[in-house]
Write a structure and sequence with these properties.
The protein has 471 residues and is α+β, with helices and mostly antiparallel strands. It has 15 helices and 14 strands. The strands form 5 sheets. It has a 4-stranded antiparallel β-sheet with strand order 7-10-9-8, with helices on both faces. Strands 4-3-14 form a 3-stranded antiparallel β-sheet, sandwiched between helices. A 3-stranded antiparallel β-sheet has the order 6-12-11.
Length: 471
Amino acid sequence: MLKKNVLTTLLVLFAISLTVVYADKRQVVLDRVVAVVGGSSILYSEVVATANQLVEQRRAQRFTSDRDPMNEGLEELLKQKLLYNQALIDSVVVGMEGRIEASVEEQLQAMIAEAGSVTDLEVKEHMPLFNYRDILRQRITEQVYAQQMSAHVVSNVVVTPGEVERFYKKLREDEKPIVPEQYVYAHIVRFPSSQEEAKRRTKERLLDMRERIISGKSTMTILARTYSQDPGSAMKGGEYPPGPLSGLAAPFAEALAKLKPGQISEVVESEFGFHIIELIDAPKNGMYHYRHILLKPIYTLEEELEPTKYLDSLSLMIKSDSITFEEAALKHSQDDLTKMNGGLVTNHDIMMRYNANDVKYTATKFRREDFGDRQQDYINLIQMKVGDVSSAFVTTDINGNSISKIVKLLEVIPTHSASLEEDYLSIEEMALDDKKSKVFDKWLKEKIDGLYVYIDPDFRKGEFEFPNWVK
């Protein structure tokens, strides 16, 4: 550890070296070091930027703080620098290089687009692009490491049912969360009967694209921008930043793992549709850098309307009491997750998507924001009364595939204060967040006491959440 007088000298020299001349304003601004945590410094400009971000966030949330934004901004940066230094000490961050580089380039390209050109951005930031890229890389690295370290600190925190109950009983009435209106409903789903034919047409289109790429008549990047139906990558030429295979659909991951750099896969079918994949470069630390083209089966209007007509007839039979909705779901629904349960809709498909297998999180009550990809369901449900059965409508499933369905509204739960009996998971989440916050605060206080922290005297007078920053 540096002695105090040596450190002070270095800080002064560093501050002087950061003098920046703003020619457009014809004045000199000194961007000085205002704090040091471990081996990381905090600049005045960083505090200003963070304070402005906090103000904008609060404004968007319609929330104001009694604290000075500059003081809040400084404390946020003090926490980030401490977490970053501790992450380096504990080596808790592994294999994040690809994610960091991808974030750097994504932000850089966005800033270039906003500025107008590379030259305009260099003028705005008063430095060459390669220098600004290094600064941005360090900034994002610190943020990623801090996030990972923060998650690591509370990764083993759990709450027992007893703790949840005690937490709830301590809440004042005005502290209990308000649960918005919720819907419980069932559905019957049908796919176009021409599904296999549509799949065949889609495979043929991708095979044609693959041939054009291999023969040099086109590139994966151009074809992805023109035809890919993946909203997350189409405009980037189908490219994704490096990531692990574990985050990909199994058939996609298996095909990607077999590729050599520059090689194009055969057509791969996943729950999202059909793909051709190109491995961009050799995997590093288990991180795969690739691009792909995604196509989903496309139906003619006649093919798309066929299951809708089928379900409209079924809906009329249910409304005339010729068959119950539950019987119709069992006999006619093509949704294997719900047809055995009278068509009752749950979040099980979403849980499967994210490998969340704990059955206690299975939900049958949906708030407006919970419908996600099922917005068409919500639009129909809000026009219905309990017990009503809708007419057939065309929508998409969680993977974006075209489907037709009818829905039955089973129950509407009015807006209410959360209770243990009806809203246990919401209360449990609050209790867990509260416990994690206390564990993290205790850990942070101890780390502040054990780590070198210096704050410029001009910045020590503000209100700190953790007063022991000032030593």
